[in-house]
Amino acid sequence: MDLKVNGQVMTLPELARDPAMPLLWVLRDGLDLTGTKFGCGIAACGACTVHVDGQAVRACVTPLSAVAGKAVTTIEGLAAPGRPHAVQLAWLAEQVPQCGYCQSGMLMAAAALLARIGKPSDADIDAAMTNLCRCGTYPRVRAAIRTAAAMKKQ
User: Fold this and answer.
1) Antiparallel, parallel or unpaired: β 49-52 and 55-58
2) Using CA atoms, how far apart are residues 36 and 102, in angstroms rounded to an integer?
3) Separation of CA 24 from chain center
4) Do 2-77 and 86-153 agree at the fold level?
5) Which pLDDT value is given to residue 154?
6) Fewer CB atoms inside 10 Å of the end CB: C or N, the chain?
7) CB neighbours of 145 closer than 8 A, spacing ≥ 6?
8) Contact at 8 Å (CB) between 110 and 78?
9) Residues 2-77, CATH architecture
10) Phi and psi, residue 100, nearest 5°
């Protein structure tokens, strides 16, 4: 079985071909793409957020069968090689990460938001950024999203 991940068609190893297996485990255990994190297993925390055909989805509850024929993008594929994505640059500029565990999911959710809405309002950010951060970096996340939106306009 093949899966399009980060722009490449990848052949899944035997252990990651069960159509009911959550996409998170296919990515982490089957393809060794460990940037996507396991947090809660019930789609509540967002640490496992990836893009499926450009939409932010929680990989811990998305079965492999739901992504057949679709493009999956993980944090490893968010930016072009050697060129960080605007949200990655903004995250650094605004010093968002503390422990960092939730950050890949946060970045993916923010990138999906900015792809949909070029200049999101506070309400747009609140609606899209449902990821949990135990360190409480939410004010810096909001600032980074605004910074990234400004960068994309340049």
Assistant:
1) antiparallel
2) 9
3) 11
4) no
5) 60
6) C
7) 87, 90, 110, 113, 114, 120, 125, 129
8) no
9) Roll (3.10)
10) 90, -10
At 15 the pLDDT is 84
Contacts of 20 (CB under 8 A, 6+ apart): 63, 64, 65
- pLDDT tens digits, one per residue of 30-84: 999 999 999 999 999 999 999 999 999 999 999 999 999 999 999 999 999 999 9
Cα radius of gyration (the chain):
15
- Residue 31's nearest CA partner among 84, 74, 71, 69 is 74
Interhelix angle 138-153/103-116, nearest 10 degrees:
40
- Rounded CA-CA distance 124/23 in Å is 27
The H or E element that residue 52 is part of is strand 49-52
Domain range summary for the chain, segments of one domain joined by + = 2-77, 86-153
Strands 2-5 and 8-11: antiparallel
Secondary structure tally for the chain: helices H, strands E = 5, 5
CB 67 within 8 A of CB 2: no
86-153 has which CATH code? Answer: 1.10.150.120
